[in-house]
Amino acid sequence: MQIKNSGVYLPIRAFGDFISTAAIVKAYALERIPAILPEYLKDFFNAVDGSKYFDIVDNISYKDQPAYYEFYKVKDFKNLQRLGKDVTILLSELDHKKKYLLDFHSKRLAFTFKKFVWPDPAKNIYEGKYNLFSKNFKFNNQNFEDGIHIKSKFLTVLIIPDSRIHTKSINPQLIAEIQTTFIDKKIDIARFNKIKTVQENEIYYSNFQELIELIDKYDLIISAESLPYHLANFYAKPHFVIYNDTKHFDENFMTPFMIKNNYYANFRSGSTADIIKKLTSILN
């Protein structure tokens, strides 16, 4: 008989990686999952009421996402120093006897001689996390599914077009076309800005709590390939993702809701009409 409650969750990737794990734990876990919380995740963890789903057993002193997940960016001595510090934290603050569950695979972590396990990289990340965490912790018998109810009509739409990787942001001309086409809908644009400003048809949020409150207010969230759609999934909010060119398209990082309902599109030059047609079938 397999022993449950083995291992500790170590979220040391991006915010979207953490909230996708939290969505699985929220939907299926019968217990709070033991976790080690890095410093850079604390505000986000509190904003999503993470203590409902995770039992923080320790902290790790990362003030930012570790560099070894961004190794391709290490191009100068300053970044190399950061990489060295990040590796030192792992070596000094983790117990080699414990098993740590990660959000994503990384062969680069092998030289730390810690016991890391991660979701199967060949599977969709949500399915992979479900399989990984259900083997290590007590989960219910509910089948793996999206669990999001689609309203008969979407009257309000929030577009969150920006991404921390600028090339993933939703094309401005496409946004304008969406607003022009669906004039019978309330369509607002939300952008992150630490300094609140006022601009017609745009809303600004300055922290995670404000973003969560915005997501809650609208029937449908349209976002770029970034954190907001994982947050929408966590709160069981219908979401449609627009990928900016096929190079950013990766089904393994889609939510179960997106896959089941085909709620995504790839924007390329000349593809505006196809995306509008797809949104018409959803919004009308």
Helix and strand arrangement:
Layout (H helix, E strand, L loop, with lengths): L7 E2 L5 H14 L4 E6 L3 H6 L6 E7 L16 H17 L5 E3 L13 E3 L7 H12 L19 E5 L11 H10 L4 E7 L9 E4 L2 H10 L2 E4 L3 H8 L4 E6 L11 H6 L2 E4 L4 H12 L1
Parallel strand pairs: 1-4, 2-3, 4-5, 6-7, 6-9, 7-8, 9-10, 10-11
Helix pairs in contact: 1-4, 1-7
Please provide a written account of the structure.
With 284 residues, the chain is an alpha/beta fold. The protein is 33% helix and 18% strand. The longest helix has 17 residues, at 77-93. The mean pLDDT is 89.
Report the end-to-end length measured between terminal Cα atoms: 52 Å
Q: So what's the CATH class of the largest domain?
A: Alpha Beta
Shape: globular
Determine the strand fraction and express it as a percent band.
Answer: 15-25%
Structural class: alpha/beta
Q: Mean of residue pLDDT?
A: 89
| The CATH architecture of the largest domain | 3-Layer(aba) Sandwich
Based on DSSP secondary structure assignment, what is the total number of beta strands? 11
Question: In CATH terms, what is the fold-level topology of the largest domain?
Answer: Rossmann fold
Helix/strand order, N-terminal first: EHEHEHEEHEHEEHEHEHEH
- The side-by-side strand order for the widest beta sheet comes to 8-7-6-9-10-11
